[in-house]
Amino acid sequence: MNLNRWPGQLLFLVAAFVVPTLIAAALGAANLGTAATFGQLAFAAAFMYLILTR
Question: Distances from the Cα of 27 to the Cαs of 9, 19, 30, in angstroms?
């Protein structure tokens, strides 16, 4: 995946939100909101990675 272009970055950010959310839901999060919190944390970390590596 080419993270130098915006489609690759967008896919990276979407995956960084969806994958942890699904993992948290599968591991027994109380509800979807709780699972999405883990997705938001991962999204923020991925976003900072993209900003700092430019």
Answer: 27, 12, 10
Confidence tier at 2 by pLDDT (50, 70, 90)? confident
Q: CB–CB of 39/46 below 8 Å?
A: no
pTM beyond 0.85, yes or no: yes
DSSP 25: H
DSSP state of 29: -
Q: What angle do CA 50, 10, 12 make, to 5 degrees?
A: 65
Residues 54 and 45: their CA atoms lie apart, in Å, by 15
Domain ranges of the chain: 6-52
Per-residue tokens: 53 = 């590596």
